[in-house]
Design brief:
alpha+beta; 7-stranded mixed sheet; 3 helices; binds zinc ion
Length: 153
């Protein structure tokens, strides 16, 4: 892992949305850009969702370039994370199960769960980028682990 003094996350703005599940709660979605490896980056949206039951859900949409040579559209991949003990576990999900199910992807292509899980390099990339955001995005730690202190470090 490369440790840099500057954050690998660039923050591009936050908005509030009404939950699509019908629970009546709102949640925040923040957009940004994540840098990784050397000189690479990927656009993302992060949704921190709580329904009525108080369970905290971390949702990430990774917005990348085309995945295949025969489809030039940019691709959206959806990852659902939740707390497990002292960490965050994650699962790739379909657009329809995600907080973006009612969002206009503006012609971009939603990547299905099977397409990710059947493509080993893509799967590795998706989970690595999700873990990067869990580690480095300033809003994830306080949301998932509210009992921890989040000063300084
Ligand atoms: Zn809900």
């Amino acid at each position: 892992m490369i440790m840099e003094s500057a954050s690998p996350v660039e923050y591009l703005g936050t908005e509030t949305r009404l939950c699509t599940c019908g629970c009546g709660q709102t949640y925040t979605v923040s957009g940004g850009k994540l840098s990784y490896d050397e000189g690479r980056d990927v656009t993302f949206e992060l949704a921190l969702v709580q329904h009525g039951d108080g369970v905290r859900h971390v949702w990430v949409a990774l917005i990348s370039g085309p995945w295949t040579d025969d489809d030039a559209r940019d691709c959206w991949t959806f990852i659902h994370g939740w707390r497990q003990d002292e960490g965050v576990t994650a699962r790739v999900e379909e657009l329809a199960q995600s907080p973006w199910s009612a969002v206009d992807l503006e012609g971009n292509r939603p990547v299905g769960r099977d397409e990710v899980m059947n493509n080993a390099p893509a799967k590795t990339w998706v989970f690595e980028r999700f873990n990067d955001l869990v580690h480095y995005h300033r809003e994830v730690g306080p949301f998932v682990f509210p009992e921890r202190e989040h000063g300084g470090a």
